[in-house]
Amino acid sequence: NNSVQIENISFLYAPMDLSNTHFTLKNVSGGCVNSNYVFQCGYSVGSIFENCEAFGCNSLTGGVGDGFNAHSDIGVGIETYIYFIYCYAHDNMDDGFSWHQYCFADCYGCFAEFNGNGFTVASGGDGLFEYCHALNNTLTGFGVTSIPLDGTEFTEATLLYCVGENNGTNFWKHQINQTKMSCDSCTSVGINHFSSGIEQINCFART
Fold first, then answer.
1. How far is CA 142 from the centre of its chain?
2. Which of 9, 25, 93, 118 could link 137 by a cystine bridge, Cβ 3.0 to 4.6 Å?
C-alpha cells in the first residue's frame, strides 16, 4: 500500500526494488549493479516508468542480470501491470526488459541495445509493445519463452510497429504450444528475422 514518486535522479552500484508499491518514476537512471536487476517491480497495477534508464547489470550468480524486471506469484492471475514509456535498457547481462508469472507490461517507444536479450516475456507473462526498437542484443531482440508455471495460461506478446535490428534473432518464439507472438507492421533488419510460429501482419524483413 505504499506510493512512491521519484523524478530526476541517477544512481549507481545498488538496485532499486519497487515491489509492493504503486510508483511513478520519471527521468530516473540506474546502473553498474552486481545484482539480478537494476529495477525490480511486482504486485503493482498502473505503475509507470517514464524516460528511465537501466544499464550495466551483472548478476552475482552469472545466470541473470536484468535492467527492468517484474514478477508476480503463480496461479493468481495478473497482479502486476506496468507501463514503460520511452525507457532505455542497455548493456545488461541478461534481459533489458523482462516480466514473468502473470505480469502484464505495456511498452511504448522503448529501446533495448547490447543486452543478452532485448525484451523478454516469460512463464505466463503478457506484453504489448508499440514503437519499440531492439538493436544489437546478443540472443534475441523480442522474445517469448517458457510455459506458465501452473500450466493454465499462455506466455504471449503483441507487437505493433516495432523494429528488431541485428540481434541474434530479431523476433523469437519458444517452439511450444503455450507461447504466442503476434507482429503487426514490424520491421526486421539483419540475418535472423522471425522464428517459426510467429503471426506476421504487414511485416517487412531485409538484410
1. 8
2. 118
60: buried, middle or exposed (CB in 10 Å: 19+, 13-18, 0-12)?
exposed
Here the cell at position 188 is: 526486421
Q: Is 62 helix (H, G, I), strand (E, B) or coil?
A: coil
CA–CA dist 187, 128 (Å, integer) = 16
Residue 177: partners with Cβ closer than 8 Å, 6 or more residues away: none
Q: Which of 197, 124, 120, 122 is nearest to 164 (CA)?
A: 120
pLDDT value of residue 77: 53
Distance CA 95, CA 201 (A): 26
What is the phi-psi region of residue 151: left when phi exceeds 0, alpha when psi lies from -120 to 50, beta otherwise? left
Hey, what's the cell of 201? Answer: 501482419
Beta strands (DSSP E) in 109-206 are 111-113, 117-122, 126-130, 133-135, 140-145, 155-160, 163-165, 169-173, 179-184, 187-189, 199-201, 204-206
Could you read off the pLDDT of 120-156 as tens digits, one per residue? Answer: 999 888 999 999 999 999 999 999 998 777 666 788 9
Report the pLDDT value the prediction gives residue 62, as an integer from 0 to 100. 58
